Amino acid sequence: MKLLALLIAAGAGAAMAVQGGINTALGKAIGLLEATLVVHLLSAASAALLLFGLRLGQGDLQQVGSTPWYLFLGGLLGVAITFGVVLSMKRVGVAAATTAIVVAQVLTAALVDHLGLFGLLRIPFSPVKVVGILLLGGGAWILLAK
């Protein structure tokens, strides 16, 4: 099951790189903020179709009112992410922007794990993880060197 979860995550990562390129092309065609809006409207419509049309939801929307406010910041972050990805890919290219994205994601994810933020499982830093992060940073530096 762990391998399947990692394969799914890898597929999502690949999809994110393709999505960034597509969103950047859309931004060139209709504008940066306009592309951000269109992408999120289509995302919301797709999620609504899956939830209400195909009844694939497994949760309880009635709990929305009792959910801590800060857990809704993901929606705002989604807009900031799409805007930032499109802006950066347009200026530095898909590979360079994705390299910076991955490094920042891993560093931030390691911190979230270490602190057990948002009620998630606390997974402390270890010397091996620190070495892995340093190697990732070094690899990113090599990829971004001209």
Descriptive report:
- This protein has 146 residues and is an all-alpha fold.
- It has one domain.
- Helix 2 packs across helix 3.
- It is globular and about 45 Å long.
Question: Could you list some keywords that capture this structure?
Answer:
146 residues; mainly alpha
Report the count of strand segments. 0
- Helix tally equals 5
Strand content: under 5%
Shape: globular
**Terminus-to-terminus distance:** 40 Å
Total discrete domains: 1
What value does the Rg take, in angstroms? 18 Å
Helix-strand topology string: HHHHH
For this structure, the quaternary state is single chain
Share of residues in helices: over 70%
Structural class: mainly alpha
Main sheet overview: none
Q: Give start-end ranges of low-pLDDT stretches.
A: none
Mean model confidence by pLDDT: 92
Compact summary:
The protein is an all-alpha fold and 146 residues long. The protein contains 5 helices and no strands.
Helix-strand layout with pairing:
Blueprint lengths: L1 H29 L1 H22 L19 H20 L1 H22 L11 H18 L2
